[in-house]
Specification:
With 251 residues, the protein is α/β, with parallel strands linked by helices. The protein has nine helices and seven strands. The chain has a domain of 175 residues: Vaccinia Virus protein VP39 (Rossmann fold, 3-Layer(aba) Sandwich). 39% of the residues lie in helices and 24% in strands. It has a seven-stranded mixed β-sheet with strand order 3-2-1-4-5-7-6, sandwiched between helices. The model has no long low-confidence stretch (mean pLDDT 92).
């Protein structure tokens, strides 16, 4: 997994909406953060969101397992980044008032280990803000086919980061889910054909999730279903929303 993220590091930002999208994520997080306290960005990646938070006046430190991604983060944040596993954070116990993760828990780490470590490093009453990759998704003909494929590829929901999946995992480590905050709607256009092309290249969840040989028939079936939809080359207007999940460590 680390090697896969190292490989996509040079193009990762551009493939995920670049600075404009990062600024949107930072805008969701900033009102929920205390500017007087440092922020630990777990899974900081290229540092693009952390840099936008820093521009808003926050002092951000970042940890990520991919040296390739961190090379870009270091250019943005300087020495305030370190190589580290989200499931084994190189951070002192009860030393952090607030932590954030953007698009992390769907991308490979064991969320149980992440929540265990977050609970360890947070002070009592500290908060962990998570922007999930699987926000409020469009409920249209494309969305129904994509969700069905996700369920077939990931029956144990190891790549799912919705509240109903993460809340009990967090609670097991003393982190209470306080609910969603900072919802940010987005409208975009994509055709069934374009979605099929994207899925066929293995970019369903993240560029670092490599499809297995046994997955290929499932992907091919979903692509065929997408291309068989009415007017497959006509872009649909699709609405989704990113939101922040707010977890608090028990006092």
């Amino acid at each position: 997994m680390t090697a896969a993220f190292d490989a996509i590091a040079p193009t990762y930002d551009a493939s995920r909406g670049g600075t404009a999208r990062a600024a949107g994520f930072a805008g969701q997080l900033a009102p929920l953060l205390d500017p007087a306290e440092p922020v630990l960005d777990i899974g900081v990646g290229t540092g693009i969101v952390a840099a936008e938070l820093a521009a808003l006046g926050h002092r951000v430190y970042g940890v990520d397992l991919s040296p390739g991604m961190l090379a870009h983060a270091r250019e943005r944040l300087g020495a305030r980044v370190a190589v580290g596993d989200a499931g084994r954070l190189p951070v002192r116990t009860a030393s952090v008032a607030q932590a954030v993760s953007t698009w992390l828990l769907h991308a490979g780490p064991d969320p149980r280990a992440v929540f265990r470590e977050v609970a360890r490093v947070l002070r009592p009453g500290g908060r962990y803000l998570v922007i999930p990759a699987r926000g409020r998704q469009p409920d249209d003909d494309i969305g129904r086919i994509v969700r069905a494929l996700e369920a077939r590829l990931d029956p144990a929901a190891t790549r799912q980061d919705a509240p109903d999946v993460l809340t009990p995992l967090a609670a097991a480590h003393g982190l209470t889910y306080e609910g969603p905050a900072g919802e940010r709607p987005t409208v975009f256009r994509v055709s069934p054909t374009a979605m099929a092309d994207s899925i066929a290249t293995g970019r369903l969840f993240t560029g670092a999730w490599q499809l297995r040989d046994e997955d290929l028939p499932l992907v091919a079936d979903a692509c065929d279903r997408l291309r068989a939809l009415p007017d497959p080359d006509v872009p649909r207007v699709r609405e989704m929303a990113d939101f922040v999940m707010v977890f608090r460590r028990e006092e």
